[in-house]
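step 4 of 6: structure.
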Amino acid sequence: MPEHVYEVIEIVGSSKTNIEDAVQNALNRAAQTHESIRWFQIVETRGYVENGKVAYWQVNLKIGSTIKN
Amino acid sequence: MPEHVYEVIEIVGSSKTNIEDAVQNALNRAAQTHESIRWFQIVETRGYVENGKVAYWQVNLKIGSTIKN
Amino acid sequence: MPEHVYEVIEIVGSSKTNIEDAVQNALNRAAQTHESIRWFQIVETRGYVENGKVAYWQVNLKIGSTIKN
Amino acid sequence: MPEHVYEVIEIVGSSKTNIEDAVQNALNRAAQTHESIRWFQIVETRGYVENGKVAYWQVNLKIGSTIKN
Amino acid sequence: MPEHVYEVIEIVGSSKTNIEDAVQNALNRAAQTHESIRWFQIVETRGYVENGKVAYWQVNLKIGSTIKN
Amino acid sequence: MPEHVYEVIEIVGSSKTNIEDAVQNALNRAAQTHESIRWFQIVETRGYVENGKVAYWQVNLKIGSTIKN
Amino acid sequence: MPEHVYEVIEIVGSSKTNIEDAVQNALNRAAQTHESIRWFQIVETRGYVENGKVAYWQVNLKIGSTIKN
Amino acid sequence: MPEHVYEVIEIVGSSKTNIEDAVQNALNRAAQTHESIRWFQIVETRGYVENGKVAYWQVNLKIGSTIKN
Amino acid sequence: MPEHVYEVIEIVGSSKTNIEDAVQNALNRAAQTHESIRWFQIVETRGYVENGKVAYWQVNLKIGSTIKN
Amino acid sequence: MPEHVYEVIEIVGSSKTNIEDAVQNALNRAAQTHESIRWFQIVETRGYVENGKVAYWQVNLKIGSTIKN
Amino acid sequence: MPEHVYEVIEIVGSSKTNIEDAVQNALNRAAQTHESIRWFQIVETRGYVENGKVAYWQVNLKIGSTIKN
Amino acid sequence: MPEHVYEVIEIVGSSKTNIEDAVQNALNRAAQTHESIRWFQIVETRGYVENGKVAYWQVNLKIGSTIKN
């Protein structure tokens, strides 16, 4: 990992299922515009509630992708 | 969401299963005294260990509920 | 819990499955050198991505264990 | 101010006008259930956008009120 | 401790004597409305000065109390 | 709001008038390249001073916009 | 801006009107003892409440001024 | 308290006895150059150890004093 | 102090008496495995409550000890 | 500097030599897609180690560039 | 070091060369008004960029100096 | 990097020369007791001053090393 230059972007993803799925959904969208995603960091975990139940899990991710030469 | 005034409370919930279940357990209790819960934010994730295994997942939540007129 | 003196160490664990499994893997290793692990706190959650999918979940844990007399 | 015991609550207020008005709106609601509000601290300032314009200013306040004997 | 759901409130207490006494004064007031206080965390320590001497010690506490079923 | 994936960018805006106007100026520019701005958060408020008077208010905003499918 | 050495001081200003005026009031006082104030950063925004209304806005500013040779 | 402009300085005080005495020692020195000290906040508490015992308690204080007209 | 290399460990100590005693208790245990403790920093102060009274003061310390050649 | 609107991006750069060179390498890459870089802030400094020696210095930069009209 | 009372000031220094030189330049200016500087802490590292190259390194320092009796 | 479990320790290193050398000195000592150091993060940079010049650069490092099976 050390030899690259990374671009870091922030994406918010959500899922009705769980935290891990919200992360993967954010990565799916990021992958449409960034070819070489290498890592992510969760910087915030929130959720929306309907009728007392978690309706959506929502994660803010920092996503690092290699910048090509 | 923008037109409401929210009250924000902090609740600690736990679960033997996983982080998502600990969140839902905290919301279940909060729902007994707050009618209109709308969102939550996880502000800390801890756990208790017995015999080397996670015995309880424990989350501190900020919980936002609409204040009625 | 209050009567003990705790040592707090930091361990990074990972898992191909999910966040909870990465925590348990970190605890498994910590247990090889620390007899009396009592609690942990997640201080960072990251992950590594291959072909657009989460390849590894990685958690930084503070782990508290009782120091024996 | 020093001789009192304060209760600190967190309220989110909003306004279509500006930040100061969002603060006052939050205080108006807090005053319905807390008699002796003395101070506040802004802990977050956000807003919602419609058609490129700020539609609502939203502030998270810590609000301190004297607890009576 | 792990099996409970906790409510976390924030109280500011003060004392002319020292930090520990300011904590206890905050707990005394919290106990009037919360039956089952279990722990606290000091989140800020301030004081007021008169004629160059500390007149009041003032502590902001997060206080956790068990929510009964 | 929960069903979307958001991109979060950071923009610094300024104004000779006040904080709210600096926010709107930042949003105006962001709108030139982002169609669906939904929310912002102020992460820093600074200003520049000339002859003892505030010459410019300057705000750092996190701006969230919906990513279209 | 880069060629100077700056001294950074912290001043708390207040105003009955709004946040911007509290900032300017703090700068007015700082200007009595610092000739070359160049920038400020708001590090905290608080207020005092009387009869449910904001009586004073209060801002903590870091203020940077050029140190002359 | 709200009508004043405050200057905030940072002083580190120490004591062989306890935390409260280290605070008072810092205030004693600050009082030699600042007439109207009104409040302080403890921003860090450290200590030095000799032969396994606390030799000195050391506190970093933010100290607020009224600026006279 | 500057010429040494320090190892920094984290220990949680407790006391029924006060904060200073909880610090010394943590240092006593640390001294059993670390010969040359030089300084500490309090990073968190908590407590446990029984019948409305502080039963234990608990401090998290970063402890620095010289590493010998 | 005050009259511009800035875009702030985050780039991770690395160097085998030192911290300053890692910063310049990050700026070199950022310059390929951003014409008017004006300032940066180091938000994290890390490194990778091989055979006990620093193999790469790695810096996370926030980079501000003027947005043209 | 423990027996002194320290005054802590904040100075911003800059250099065309590197981070260490920016620190020394800040100390040089601080030394003109403070006789007994003992330590510093870097609290922020920034820089200004011209034509894609670092033109100035800029550091915010907390500087501690002994207050004489 | 992702498949390992890491132990994270904190070491303070110093150098009369510069920040990079202080980092390497900390790593040299850590290497005496940890075989497989992989990365570090600088968490604080301080220094000691004599006669107005930097006498020692001092860095607090988090150091990650692979735990062998």
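step 5 of 6: annotate
 - Residues 19-33 of chain L form the longest helix (15 residues).
 - Residues 10 and 62 of chain L are 5 Å apart (CA to CA).
step 6 of 6: archive
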